[in-house]
Amino acid sequence: MLAKTSTIACVVFGVLFAGGAYAQPDPDSEAKPEAGPAAGADGADQLTLPKGRLLLDASLIASLVSGAEFKPFSLSPDVWYGVTDDITAGLVHSIAGVTGFIGFPGSSLCLSGSGGSCADIYPDVGLLARYKLKTGSLALAADGGLFIRHFGDPFQLALKAGADVRWHSGKIAVESDPNLIFGFTNRDGGNGDFLDLPITAFYAITPAIAAALQTGFIIPFQNTGDAYAIPLSIGAHYHVNESLNVYLAFSLPALISGQAIKGFDLRSLTLGGTYAF
Q: Helix, strand, coil % (nearest 5) of the chain?
């Protein structure tokens, strides 16, 4: 039977997949058969942090493209803070933290240099917030904020508006973070509008280990037929203790795409963890 789980690690979708907020044992509590992946300490899913709590999610993401391994690679820290029991704010550097999709290297901090497909070491950052709407086996939160896609010339500013949805039953959990991205500046230079629809399924193999499978749709509103993508990620998560989770994921960012480069041509590896304070 799965044990009760920690509310702290059950934050928002971007952290959930990256941080592995699945079944986490509490050694001081009695196991309950209905406590499934990412169930909160009270048996209810929680998509926001409790007031005053802090969660750090750091991910190392590396390209595995043949002939260009680790070009780029990035170390992206996302920091989430419980402003109230209903509102969680985040300073986000990873693409997963903004769009919900894991496995895209090259965001802040991009560490492979100009010769390793990094235009800047600090190209982007976002300030996001999530508002709890519903808890329970079907949990819901509103999600949105501003983020900078590029600091340099041209400066690219965008807005995110979306929602976080999580359903769990027993050892299985399914999550989605549907969101719209609206470009404000330099719209003709690549800062366009997107619909992101990530879908992630979790299966708790043991109370400490879970497998995850993510796919979904990335749909640009401009040049949709040429620029859409359907990514695929396969991951595993390990709950080390009540504060620390580690995770590993292999991704195909454009398994199906309108671009010429797709399938296994693009691939990446993500290694990281979350720590709850």
A: 10, 50, 45
Per-residue pLDDT tens digits for 167-200: 999 999 999 999 999 999 989 888 999 999 999 9
- Predicted TM-score (pTM) of the model is 0.84
Query: CATH code at 59?
Result: 2.40.160.40
**Spatial distance between the Cα atoms of 202 and 1, rounded to a whole number of angstroms:** 16
CA-closest candidate to residue 10, choices 237, 251, 254: 237
Domain interval for residue 97: 13-276
Single out the residue of 16, 7, 4 nearest to residue 176, CA to CA: 16
- 246 inside domain: yes
Cα–Cα distance measured from residue 173 to residue 38, given in angstroms and rounded to the nearest whole number: 8
Domain-embedded: residue 5: no
Number of domains in the chain: 1
SS3 225: helix
**Both structure tokens of 215:** 């796919």
Q: pLDDT by residue (tens digit) across 75-90?
A: 999 999 999 999 999 9
Residue 29 Cα distances to 3, 72, 146, 197, angstroms:
7, 44, 40, 36
Taking phi over 0 as left and psi of -120 to 50 as alpha, with beta for the rest, 164 belongs to beta
Residue 225, number of CB atoms within 10 A of its CB = 7
Query: Is residue 110 in a domain?
Result: yes
In one-letter notation, the amino acid at residue 19 is G
Kindly state the DSSP code that residue 94 receives in the 8-state scheme: S
| Cα distances (angstroms) measured from residue 183 to each of 72, 148, 159, 265 | 24, 10, 7, 28
Q: Tell me whether the omega of the peptide bond preceding residue 27 falls within 30 degrees of 0, making it cis.
A: no
In a domain, 7, yes or no: no
Q: Give 67: exposed, middle or buried? Use CB within 10 Å, 0-12, 13-18, 19+.
A: exposed
Rounded CA-CA distance 200/137 in Å is: 16
